[in-house]
Amino acid sequence: MSRRRLRVTKRLHSIRENNGSLLIGVSDRVRDRIVQAKSGLAEEDYSAGRMMAELTRFTAVGALNVLFFFAVNYVLNGLSLSSYKSLSVWAPSWLIGALEAHAAHRWITFHSRVDYRNSLLWGCVVYGVTAMLSTFSVYLLADLLFMNYWLVWGLNTAPFGLMTFLGLRYLAFPPLPGYAARRYGDRKSTAGACRA
Fold first, then answer.
1. Chain mean pLDDT for the chain
2. What's the chain's Rg over C-alpha atoms?
3. CA 79 → CA 27, 69, 72, 96, distances in Å?
4. What is the pTM of this model?
């Protein structure tokens, strides 16, 4: 048995012995982050009006991000990187667009003061999940069912955009209890700031 296979086998036995606690630990961290975010939202009297203001900013910033994403897509689409053209264009475009979008939403949409590395980590989780789902959608619709690539691109934008907004608000840029965010029309302010 090779060393690599032996290490993998030992790791699988370890996970089985711990009843899959590795996976449970990951889901616990996500759940804990969402619980903290909900608590922070409640403490700040996060209203429907504030969410609509954030969603409006998210949409405006998102429109600029979509233009950027479209430009990257257009350039890469012209390069014909592989026989799976749609897939080889979508995935790197999404990665480049996600990094640009994280920075834009951090400063413009959510006015976040959460630790940058931490928000980038959680942003990557959000973008990673939506990237996998949207990439599969593009592969299925454009490469296997031969739908027009640009139509599929447009169809993917709205549902995955909303999914991204909710993921970023709750995971990457949550107002945690005691977190002092710039207010969006709210006149109350919370003292102090904490790092996520």
1. 76
2. 20
3. 39, 16, 11, 16
4. 0.63
